[in-house]
Amino acid sequence: MSETSKIAGSARSAEATARRGDGVAAPAAQRRLYTAGEVVGDPTCPDPYIVTDRLHVHYGSIHAVNNVSLQIARNDVIALIGPSGCGKTSFIRCINRMNDTVENARVAGRVLLDGRDVYAADLDPVALRARVGMVFQKPNPFPKSIYDNVAYGPRIHGLSRDRAELDEIVYRSLERVGLLKEVQKRMHEPGTSLSGGQQQRLCIARTIAVDPEVILMDEPCSALDPIATARIEDLIDELAMNYTIVIVTHSMQQAARVSRRVAFFHLGGLVEVNETNRVFTNPEHKLTEDYITGRIG
Ligand SMILES: Nc1ncnc2c1ncn2[C@@H]1O[C@H](COP(=O)(O)OP(=O)(O)OP(=O)(O)O)[C@@H](O)[C@H]1O
Ligand SMILES: [Mg+2]
Fold first, then answer.
1. How far is the CA of 100 from the centre of ligand 1 (A)?
2. What is the distance between the alpha carbons of residues 212 and 201, in angstroms, rounded to a whole number?
3. How far apart are CA 184 and CA 189, in angstroms?
4. Nearest CA to ligand 1 atom 2
5. Whose CA is nearest to atom 25 of ligand 1?
6. Which of 62, 103, 271 to mutate to test ligand 1, by most ligand atoms within 8 A of the CB atom?
7. Would residue 297 count as lying in a domain?
């Protein structure tokens, strides 16, 4: 089966599952047609924690993110979905200024975290990235031991006074991602010696070890098998109690399973933001419907 038809199949089954939950999809004819720049649903929220305001990202002549204004509340889990190349990664990389490290990226517009402009001249991007952690598509443990992977952030940010405190942070972080039992006897083996799913949980432990406020996840399960994926999804549910989570995913089941809101991107623009159930049972925009049912992708 091709990747596209797999995604289309999963989109259809997620939609079917969601429909059984509640509601009946509106007839397609009633849905809005695309008007460039228009956003349907509600991209705002009360007391927003993360705000992007008319955000643009360019790479040379490529306009990857086009005028995206989106608000995310504290402890929300928002899934960003949309066809490949629509700007999801470029968008989340603005929130912790990872685009600073991309040579030809140009960012315009504003990003606020808890009311502060993350692009302010006096803001330290390294400190920002401790507050806004990131988990990547491919697990990327540092070439260090399991222990040192998790201890890395607390060490560079001076979060522990002595070895006992550092041990406690490392063990607690591994426990929270459900990895401690599996690795307790091999803390000094390389992080890369773990399975893919374990490596991804190690990377999440490394992210939470510095006590961030926000976790950005860019397709965190796309390199994992279904069992490892299910474990990460359970973990996201638990993490959602303490963190604000922005997750990019190509899996409609995953978006339906873990998120509270969904933002659908298309060609760099934000098209629809709605509660997850609404998006999968009764999308407001024709393009959203076309995407979740696999007609575009
Ligand atoms: N470093 C770069 N230099 C030039 N163009 C880039 C760069 N990174 C991304 N782009 C382009 O910007 C656009 C948006 O890319 P981005 O990676 O944000 O999309 P995406 O929605 O995350 O896609 P995918 O689902 O495939 O990961 C694409 O046209 C891509 O080719
Ligand atoms: Mg991407």
1. 15
2. 16
3. 10
4. 59
5. 84
6. 62
7. no
Atom of ligand 1 nearest to the CA of 89: 22
3 lines ligand 1 (CB under 6 A): no
**Domain of 30?**
3-292
Atom of ligand 1 nearest to the CA of 87: 18
- Sequence-distant (6+) residues with CB within 8 A of 145 are 187, 188, 189, 190, 191
Give residue for tokens 């998006």: 279
Type and span of the H or E element at 60: none
How far from 12 is each of 9, 79, 251, 255, CA to CA, in Å?
A: 5, 17, 11, 13
CA of 238 to the centre of ligand 1 (A): 30
Confidence of residue 296 (pLDDT cuts 50, 70, 90): confident
Residue 102: CB within 6 Å of ligand 1?
A: yes
Q: What are phi and psi of 231, to 5 degrees?
A: -65, -40
Residue 8: pLDDT over 60: no
Report if residue 175 sits inside a domain.
yes
User: Any idea what the Cα angle at residue 198 is, between residues 50 and 201, rounded to 5°?
Assistant: 15
Measured in Å, residue 269 CA sits from the centre of ligand 1 at 13
pLDDT, tens only, 114-152: 999 999 999 999 999 999 999 999 999 999 999 999 999
Tell me the CA distances in angstroms from 124 to 48, 118, 190, 246, one per residue in order.
Answer: 22, 9, 30, 21
Whether 284 maps to a domain, the answer reads: yes
Does the residue 257 lie in any domain? yes
Quick check: 4 pLDDT over 80?
no
Rounded to the nearest angstrom, the gap between the alpha carbon of residue 278 and the centroid of all alpha carbons in its chain is: 20
CATH number assigned to the domain comprising residue 27: 3.40.50.300
Nearby residues for ligand 2 (ion, Cβ within 5 Å):
89
